[in-house]
Amino acid sequence: MITTWQQQAATAGALAQKIRDDDARMASEHFRLTEFKCKCGCSKVYVVPQLLEIVEAVRKAVKLPLTISSGYRCVAHNDAMPGTAEQSKHCLGCAADIGIPSNLLNAAVMLEAAEIAVTAVHGGWHYYAAQRFIHVDCWPWPKDRRW
Ligand SMILES: [Zn+2]
Ligand SMILES: [Zn+2]
User: Fold this and answer.
1) Domain spans in the chain, listed from the N-terminal domain onward
2) The whole model's pTM is what?
3) What is the pLDDT of residues 68-123, one digit of tens each?
4) Which ligand is closest in space to the CA of residue 38?
5) Which one of the ligands is nearest to 74 CA?
6) Which CATH code for domain 5-137?
């Protein structure tokens, strides 16, 4: 069964929850759920466990607080963003942009951690040097999932 990006994005959108800015729930050990919320004002968030594994692995390697500059994006927000991928994994809850802390002397530490973390879940990463962030992503569901 072939699942298109549109179907996956619709599923993620249906699963996304609306949350308040003061929602204190943790998505993982070091990150609050609100950090992954769409920034368009729709207040929706959806994030898959594999993505949280990646950001936690990077956080633990760097040993510094990290900022998620972009987590979940609703399709409308993604479409409105200039220069972003049309079929972004952010819309599937499978991607996060992690800012490189200004006090991290060696950014390579973070890239190495991202490489190890995404390899474990068959994901990917891209380093945006000028904007000082790393995009990490994973597959929407385990690849060996059977329908
Ligand atoms: Zn939105
Ligand atoms: Zn990204």
Assistant:
1) 5-137
2) 0.91
3) 999 999 999 999 998 888 899 999 999 999 999 999 888 899 999 999 999 888 88
4) 1
5) 1
6) 3.30.1380
